[in-house]
Amino acid sequence: MRMLAACLALVGALVAGGVSMAATDVIRGSATYRERIALPPGTTLEVELLDVSKADAPSVLIASDSIPVLRQVPIAFALAYDPALIDEKNRYALTAKLMHAGGVLFRSTAITPVLTHGAEAGAAPEILLVQSEEPAPEAEPATEPDDAAAKPAEGGEAAAAAAEVPADMAAVAGTWIASEINGAATDEKVVSWLKLSDAGRAQGQGGCNSFTGTYKLENGTLTFGPLASTRRACPETQMSQEQRFFAALGAVKAARLESGDLVLTDLAGEPLVQLRKK
């Protein structure tokens, strides 16, 4: 009963906070590989749902998710998608890859059929990954700072250097992990994260449920469009943080960058969510 109550409270918070609950379905599955290799910290699993109906044309992206990897394989995922985009006559498939520091560690080499044309309804697909042959990205050589850069700013100049208004979506693009919500530190065992693209797409996870949608950024003003979320119940600690995270996102009106962190604020500039770059 407590879990059900927490789930209902989450739905109420989403509506009250302005985050609409668009109709979504979810594909739950896992990704794994056979090699006995441990994944390094900071690895992410990227999963895509594609329309692969036309053999002579590029696949069409239906949904995607980027999931911070917190354990070794198999890695579970819950990919939310809009059922209105699914045509029973078409063919759909999943692909996945494990990313670290901008490079691909493992990737799927075969598509995994789902949803239509005999794909087992309700089955949890397992995506088999193979080790990538792509070279790891090279680190940029360190450079010595010049005197002007090394000299610490003073007074108001220090505040100006520490905070800036993001110029465009490219400035906030990436995966961000929430470190504070409404001024309170997040639970270190519960990960609430947000991924923003430079094309206006937003997705992430509140701590239990995945979400996807859009956002707009102009002259420091940032607002989220309707965010579609899955609706599963989790332990109370996860649901509590997720409720606060979703409610805060629904109230966001602006953004600024402070010492590498993304700070989402209300109209008065009060911090609602502080996130660190993954």
From TrEMBL:
Pfam families: META (PF03724), YscW (PF09619). This is Putative lipoprotein. Keywords: Lipoprotein, Signal. Residues 134-161 are annotated as: Disordered. Residues 173-275 form the DUF306 domain. It comes from the Bacteria. The keyword tRNA-binding does not apply. Residues 150-161 have a biased composition (Low complexity). The keyword GTP-binding does not apply. It comes from Amaricoccus macauensis. InterPro entries: DUF306_Meta_HslJ, HslJ-like_sf, Lipoprotein_YbaY-like, Pilotin. Residues 135-147 have a biased composition (Acidic residues). Residues 1-22 form the signal peptide.
